[in-house]
Design brief:
Layout lengths: L1 H16 L3 H8 L13 H12 L10 E6 L2 H22 L7 H13 L6 H11 L11 E8 L6 H18 L3 E4 L4 H5 L3 H5 L6 E10 L16 E5 L2 E5 L1
Antiparallel strand pairs: 1-2, 2-4, 3-4, 5-6
Helix pairs in contact: 3-7, 4-6
Bound molecules: flavin mononucleotide (FMN).
Length: 242
């Protein structure tokens, strides 16, 4: 019992003075949008997939399917389809367009129906992708598509997010760069081409995807982040902490 107490005290003192390796990877991870052409060795991608596989999920349903793309033809094809759909979106629902009453009404209606997708931030990116000013997979040599199993209990999107972030952190711990790429969703949601080509059907639906590769330079590093206040209840009082 005494030994246990001593070990715990030592551990706490050690933690007070230095961050763990895991914390460092979490705090320093940044999205990378510039990759070397050199492919990532297969064993590294397999270890990254394993990190995803070991993620927790509601009811241990593991409601995901990972698809690894390392063929430029496939990555470029999905990119082209995404650009095409973004162009159509831009034409149909660009709410900054004032030339036509019908288009303005249509934009207003869609913004109300899809407030998250058409928030100015993602919508701005849609127009950048449509105009060729923002790449989709940023020329990453490996892409992991994450499909959710819609039968998963509770919230399969959340489970896929947790699995994806496990993979991202594993990749960064190996010195790789990654970028979450949610925009590829439009290539799977609004066309059947890539689902057919990759053999994706019920119960799988696109959740998100990851670009992975060797970063040019070292994009990782801590940056200032907004601080959200946290309410903390203890000993009958409530305090607010950073
Ligand atoms: C679910 C999700 C989807 C994202 N989709 C894209 C995307 O399609 N394209 C892109 O360049 N970045 C994408 N990002 C990256 C975010 O823009 C980035 O995480 C955010 O700006 C914070 O920057 P940081 O990752 O460097 O900390 C996505 C991030 C998340 C979590």
């Amino acid at each position: 019992m005494e030994n246990e107490q001593k070990e715990m005290t030592e551990r706490v003192e050690q933690l007070q003075s230095q961050r763990t390796e895991t914390e460092n990877v979490i705090l320093k991870r940044r999205s990378n949008r510039l990759y070397k052409k050199k492919q990532v060795p297969e064993f590294m991608i397999k270890r990254i997939l394993e990190a995803g596989r070991f993620a927790p999920s509601a009811g241990n349903c593991q409601p995901w399917k990972f698809v690894v793309l390392r063929e430029p033809e496939l990555i470029e094809g999905i990119t082209r389809t995404t650009v095409t759909v973004c162009k159509i979106f831009k034409w149909l629902i660009d709410y900054r367009y004032t030339g036509s009453l019908w288009r303005r009404l249509n934009a207003n209606l869609n913004i109300r129906l899809k407030p998250n997708d058409l928030h100015p931030m993602p919508f701005g990116a849609v127009t950048l992708i449509a105009d060729g000013k923002l790449g989709l997979y940023h020329d990453a040599p490996t892409v992991i598509l994450i499909f959710k199993d819609v039968r998963g209990i509770s919230n399969p999107d959340l489970d896929c997010g947790i699995a994806g972030q496990n993979m991202v952190l594993a990749a960064h711990s190996m010195g790789l760069g990654t970028c979450w790429v949610g925009f590829a969703k439009v290539a799977f949601q609004y066309t059947g081409k890539w689902k057919k080509r990759l053999g994706i059907s019920y119960p799988y639906k696109f959740a998100s995807s990851l670009a992975i590769g060797w970063p040019v330079g070292d994009p990782d590093g801590m940056v200032a982040r907004p601080t959200h206040m946290t309410d903390w209840y203890e000993n009958g009082t409530r305090k607010t902490v950073y």
